[in-house]
Amino acid sequence: MLGKKLVTAQKRGETRALCLGLGMVACSMMIYFFIGVTIVPFYTKSIWTSETVCKLLKSDIKDRVLCPNSEGSEDEGIFPYPCLQVWVNLTASGKEVMLYQTEDTLRRNPKCSYVPDKSEDSKEVKAKIEKIVNNFKKYQTFPCYYDPGGTQTNVILSRLYPLNGLLFAFLWPTLMFTGGCLIIFLVKINQYFSVLSAGQ
Predict the structure, then answer these.
(1) Do 99 and 87 belong to one domain?
(2) Interval 36-48: pLDDT, tens
(3) Could you tell me the pTM of the whole model?
(4) Is the alpha carbon torsion for 104, 109, 115, 120 positive or negative?
(5) By the number of CB atoms within 10 A of the CB, which of 46, 100, 191, 200 ranks highest?
């Protein structure tokens, strides 16, 4: 009687462990799909792929400009903010070009090097822009990214999704997938040895 209870408990434990492993594998595949349709296209479509060194030439804060928070936004999505323009000397070509924060900055407003979020108030934006200007004056040379194909003559300070960020995004689903497969493998090995010992 006790042996039957132990066998039943063992089977329940194996079933739960197997469901856990399959669930982990299924969740990791869903995360892989989500990353594949959201982050990977931004990484592959970015043309600013080569890193070089930029030297600051000048940084100006123009009058307040109006810019939509996103493409196709309505009037309530338009907000005023000081327009920061940063010009640098591109070491790779020796040209004077405009620097943007990321690829998205150029898409949202090609006139300004930095576009704040709509959620930030005017004081926060002004303080942040002044801090950015001071950092540029402090660090005259810094790494930046340019388009080696020459399609875009401007440069960006940082990529939205760099290679190390993309690899880090794939790390957690990979660990989950590996853990799920390991659990399934151990359950199957345990079942095999159980059947083998019962036959003997």
Answers:
(1) yes
(2) 898 888 888 888 8
(3) 0.68
(4) negative
(5) 100
